[in-house]
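Supplementary Note 3. Input sequence used for the single-chain structure prediction.
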Amino acid sequence: MRTALRITVFLLAIAAMSPPAPAANAEDDLVHVKSHVLYDIHPDQGPVRVTWDVSILNNDPQTDVEHTPGSAIFFYEAFDFPLLVGASGLTATSAAGAPLEITPGGQEQGPMVPATVKLDRRLFFGDSYDLRIQYEVPEKRHPAVITIPAYAFIPLLASGDEATVDVSAPVDAPWSTSIEAVDCAQNGVTFSCTGADAVFLAAVAEVARPDLTATMSTEVQLRDRKVPLNITYFQGEEAFAQHVSDLAVNALPVLEDIYGVQYFGPGTVNVSERVRQVILGYEGLTSCDPATACEVNISPIADDRTMLHELAHLWSGLYEKRWLAEGFAEYTAAQSVQYLPEGLVSGSAVVRQQPSVELQLDDWGDVENVIGASEDDLAVENAGYFRSLRFLDQLEFELGVEALRRTNQAISQEGEPADSRRFMDLLEDISGRNNDSLFVEWVFPESLEPLISDRREARDRLTNVTARAQAAGLTEDVPAEIQKKVDAWQFQEAFTALETAEAGLDTFDDLKDDLARLQEDIDAAGLVLSDSIQKLLAEWDFEAARSTVDQAFEAVTAYAIAVEKVNARRSAWEQFGLLGSDPESSVERAASAFNDGDYENAIDQADKAIDTIDGASRTAMRRVLIVAGLAALFGLVVLGAVWLSRRREPDFA
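The predicted structure, written as discrete structure tokens, is reproduced below.
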């Protein structure tokens, strides 16, 4: 949507003197002007008719001829009044019905053109004068005034020290009438204004026949498809509808390029002229239903830049926060003008007033009806539009337009609308720059500054962890899990995970030295280090990796000792002890187990070989003792047999 319609009216000097009037203090009621203005707005009955009844009272003591010394004589005989642009059939008459000279002149000022009425007599101190001004506004389309049979938009102008404005307009169906107070107090269709020689925009009146419409259709060629475009307009607005069609056909491809994202909305776009009640008092209001169409509703009084703004909202599905949607609509619409055919976009860019209220963009609320809104609410609206555009202009200046386009592309690829936090994250990822200070200044409330600080710490620490992991050839599974917490702005959980990851990487740094020494020992032993340790490291299982390295050290040490013992010279006695043993096979099995990463089995096999060789002498002794024992036993058996045989022999003596 575009900000609420506000028509600027410049103040005119009410009292004009010939010769020049003497100086007076602003608070002095030198000439009191009282006016009653009637606006008769019935579009189906012909032109808008405007009648002014004016009473003038001269209170200026310097025009007192009898009591003012000196030769200079001052008086009043001409007065200025604000008329609507396009006024025709202009007449001015005195209370007596005498015609007065009335001359429109000067530049148009919004909906107004000044006109000077010259009285048929001079006004001196104490004199009063009544006059009537009448004119019509025929069928007309002007940036600030529209009168056609099906629709009228009329700014209700008045002036003087006291002014009353009455409006006559249809009140029954099928007509729709809206009269919104601006500068004056409202009581039904009557508006009362007071001020010192002031020009008032008392109210704006909109009178329409919503049922008297017509439709034209065309197609817009975008990057990857044609999109049907239907334009519904009030009857009599054919030229306006054709201009809207030309604007859309040319502007939508340009906007698509500036956003950097292919159009992803519904298959049909409907542009419709709507009364202000429908569009909540805004100049335009756009909404998209993915299942049907995008509805671009605009006020007939909306200008070309408002139309571009509303067309730019076809990409607002990229954003969750209002400031992003409105800011990018303002930004891309402004950018698009320079790429459109010369002369297609009429009018100049509106320079918004500096905000009168403080507003951090993330606090800008949802769209609400601004018809009858308070000055405070309107000030917030102005601040939201102003600051959102200025912030994006600042980002473009510091980061470049391509950073904004690529950020939009990243949002589109994620498939979810971005809020302020996600936009900040993606913009930093794309630009490679810390933008914290900008977002603190423009977007986030002061209460979130500690959270922004936590975000910075978490992102910086994660960047360091990721770099260390990549340098070490570790998988990025752990940093990826931490990244999810950082992306969700769950920084306390991220800090806990970061502490664990950083401690693990510190352990890995120590392990690297141990691995280097282990590799030297393995190479010296003629063995091969399996990839089991590297797999554990890659999976960030540093505790298991430490345990495995320690076990591998023990295994290679045992293997080296076993090999040394197997290859050592042995005495005949030791060789005797090793008869029937095969320590060489145990060493071979230890080597095979080590190369397979089975360090526990390698230790067992190496220890078996060592124990076999170390026990060779004992084994030989046992064997000798066994043989001796067997021999002794055999001798005893023989002796016993001899003894028994002797016992059995008969005694012949």
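The first strand starts at residue 2 and ends at 4. Residues 4-27 have pLDDT under 50 and may be disordered.
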